[in-house]
Design a protein that fits this description.
With 240 residues, the chain is α/β, with parallel strands linked by helices. It is built from ten helices and ten strands. A hairpin with a 2-residue loop joins strand 4 and strand 5.
């Protein structure tokens, strides 16, 4: 479904990614693990159209997307849950979720239209806690609830593939497990998932396949189970 080949990208005149390649099959749950500053976020932003590739290619469902702006990539079926959640604090939970549908659904349905409401119902079924807080300002939610909202907002665009950048950041361990359990359920329902994570233990426990990134390059790629048992990975990222 997603093919990234020999990708070079960064900020200004400084490249962060140096020939990075990875593949995410349709319907899979993949994770990109690595230390802080290794290039995980840059990789996710490049796929989502927020960082422009310098060299290399990004293909989604057989078509190149590396040249497209972020809004068009959303319409192709990729949604990013950014690092730090980035919810619209002064807006209500409902308004945040409706914003997630803007690019993909609102051109075909006015706000409050049937298609948007059907998608909203799906998100609230996935995250029942949000249903209790629809009128509440997003800034007043707990960290875990804001992460649910950020994922729900991305789901409102009816994506084929969900990107999540450091979804465990700042969350209690129990909430982290709940979030990853939801991601696994979404994958089982047919959604393709790619997660970048410093929390390698929980990421590898839920993913099918994993990549290890160091200094902007993929240095290991294997099944999640094999990476979890790899001595280098266990020492460097699992603390074992």
């Amino acid at each position: 479904m997603l093919e990234v080949k020999a990708l070079q990208a960064g900020y200004g005149n400084s490249n962060v990614l140096h020939g990075l390649s990875l593949s995410v099959p349709k319907g899979s749950f993949c994770t990109l693990i690595g230390a802080n500053g290794a290039g995980k976020s840059t990789t996710m932003k490049a796929i989502a159209g927020l960082v422009r590739p310098v060299q290399g290619s990004i293909e989604f469902e057989g078509k190149p997307i590396g040249h497209l702006p972020a809004a068009q990539i959303v319409t192709r079926g990729i949604a990013l849950v950014p690092e730090g959640r980035r919810v619209f604090g002064p807006m209500s939970v409902r308004e945040n979720l409706q914003m997630g549908a803007f690019t993909r659904l609102f051109p075909r349905a006015v706000q409050g239209g049937r298609e948007v409401e059907m998608r909203l119902a799906f998100v609230l079924e996935t995250f029942p806690r949000l249903k209790e807080r629809l009128a509440q300002q997003a800034a007043t939610l707990s960290g875990g609830e804001q992460q649910m909202l950020a994922i729900g907002r991305a789901l409102m665009s009816t994506p084929h593939m969900l990107l999540l950048d450091e979804p465990s950041m700042g969350l209690a361990p129990l909430i982290v497990l709940q979030v990853f359990d939801v991601l696994r359920k979404l994958q089982n329902s047919g959604l393709t998932v790619l997660v970048s994570e410093q929390n390698a233990s929980v990421a590898l426990a839920h993913a099918d396949h994993g990549y290890v990134i160091e200094s902007g390059r993929i240095v290991l790629a294997d099944t999640a189970a094999n990476l979890h048992g790899n001595d280098k990975v266990r020492e460097a990222y699992l603390g074992i």
